[in-house]
Amino acid sequence: MQFTEIFNSSSSVILYRDGLSHEFYKGEEEYGRIISGWNELICRAVPMPAYGVSIDKLTREEMKKGEWVEFIFDGRCEINEMPFEKLLVKVEENYCGFNIIRYNSEGGYFGRCYYLQLKDGKNMSRFASAIGDISLN
Fold this sequence. Notes:
alpha+beta; two-stranded antiparallel sheet; 9 strands; seven-stranded antiparallel β-sheet; about 140 residues; about 40% strand; globular
């Protein structure tokens, strides 16, 4: 499976916004909006070597601030010999490339990250706008 296609196999997506969160499940309208916006964002994105390494405690603290999106999978997945059960991304309008933080039950948000570089002058602004009005209630 291509890296940019793995997100379509998620079973749910959690939006985090300033310490609040809500999980949206496959089949729900909001899930569809998030996945559609995400696919548009990463269309033609290029996976690159990542220098980012996540430390669980620090990542959990950071998730209390700003907006984050987390893709949840039904089981353990692996890309480039790096396993995960969830993938987490910080949403920042001006990001043209970003770390994708792996979660696995053995260590939480710990270890090497993936990195996607957007193409064609894209940044996250359209995606941030698309999910910005989704209620977390």
